[in-house]
Amino acid sequence: MSVSLYYTARRATPLTDAELTAVGQVVDTYNANAPFSLEEGLHLYDRLESGTALDGSTKLPGSNDRAVASLVHWLAAVTALRGAVPDADWTFSLDDYDIEWDDRTGYHLPGLAD
Fold first, then answer.
1. Sequence spans of domains, the chain
2. Residue 68: its pLDDT value, please?
3. Rounded (5°) CA angle 48-34-91
């Protein structure tokens, strides 16, 4: 059974050139520094619905010994994506479970990094 993260930034205007550059840097950096080399990274969709500035997903590894480290890494990655596109309405979920934004810590799941 696979579990995935889904992230979407909605707003009326598309990403600016500066935002596209920043998003590309986040994607490149976090994908290159993923905790395990054989896992899926940040995957941004090419085809966007109207009113969507950014949309993507990341499939988490199926093995329990890799899941926590991967999840911590990708939570930080989507926090960085949100920093690159701050003026959008963001949704972020672990399959059907919504992950809430915290202005102090970004995206996280309580107790995960302990």
1. 4-62+86-107
2. 86
3. 35
